[in-house]
Design brief:
Layout: E1 2-6, H1 11-22, E2 26-31, H2 34-43, E3 49-53, H3 59-69, E4 76-79, H4 94-122, E5 126-130, H5 143-165, E6 171-175, H6 184-188, H7 199-211, E7 216-217, H8 221-230, H9 235-246
Parallel strand pairs: 1-2, 1-4, 2-3, 4-5, 5-6, 6-7
Helix pairs in contact: 1-7, 3-4, 4-5
Length: 251
């Protein structure tokens, strides 16, 4: 069994790699930071670990990654790479937003399509797309990030239903956490106003639920309650509340 994880050098990607190694999965770890990838590879001793230093925000690299790994017979794809950019739309660098879209949406979409066809051919496999509870909301001050996660959530749900209707035995899941203690804050330039969940715990839950065929994975009782409550609140009200909360996040 082999798992490929993007954004594997830190946070949930790193914890998923550690946990999957305990389940006996050989690993292909993809990220931009070579030193961190090598440190993780040196830590994991019980399975085969291959590291690939690559920036998948560049479309051509996504196709290159597939060509490099297509013969590895990937059983579990985890699209974890992603980041946020804090600020009003008029103030955030357009270049930064386009890089976010390329990473959070285009890379995930391309890699899903490429590895999915191989999984369909053998009628088995798992794909876990890392979304967010933000995927059910609009997010002033993090507009492009929230919008990207809306794409991830809805794309995964639609793909899952297509596979189910065609009776294809490939399981597709989306992880939708609230705040998790990772490097997201530092990269996005924000502070969470509530304490985040432990990344190790979230990673284990995500892998376990994906292997059990769960479509939408939401860690934490509070975030589950929030999602449940969204159906009773108007979008205008939720966007206004989101605006007020986001103004308190700035570093």
């Amino acid at each position: 069994m082999t798992a490929l994880i993007t954004g594997a050098s830190s946070g949930m990607g790193r914890e998923m790699a550690r946990y999957l190694s305990t389940l006996g999965y050989d690993l292909i770890l993809v990220a931009r930071r070579e030193d961190r990838l090598n440190a993780l590879k040196n830590e994991i001793k019980n399975v085969k670990v291959k590291t690939i230093v690559m920036d998948i925000s560049k479309q051509e690299n996504c196709f290159k990654l597939y060509e490099m790994t297509k013969d590895a017979d990937i059983d579990f794809l985890i699209n974890n790479a992603g980041f946020g950019a804090y600020g009003k739309v008029k103030d955030v660098s357009l270049e930064r937003e386009l890089q976010l879209i390329d990473t959070n949406i285009k890379a995930l979409h391309i890699l899903t399509r490429l590895y999915l066809k191989d999984m369909i051919a053998k009628d088995s496999g798992y794909i876990l797309n890392v979304g967010s509870i933000a995927g059910y909301l609009a997010g002033p001050f993090l507009a492009s990030y929230y919008a990207s996660k809306n794409y991830v959530v809805r794309y995964t749900e639609a793909l899952r239903e297509e596979l189910r209707r065609d009776k294809i035995n490939v399981k597709v899941s989306v992880l939708c956490p609230g705040p998790v203690r990772t490097e997201f804050n530092k990269v996005a330039g924000v502070n969470f106003i509530v304490s985040g969940l432990d990344s190790k715990r979230v990673a284990k839950l995500a892998v376990d639920k994906t292997l059990k065929g769960k479509m939408v994975i939401i860690p934490g009782a509070a975030i589950k309650m929030l999602k449940f409550g969204l159906r009773f609140l108007g979008e205008n009200l939720m966007t206004r509340v989101s605006y007020s909360l986001q103004t308190k996040r700035k570093n």
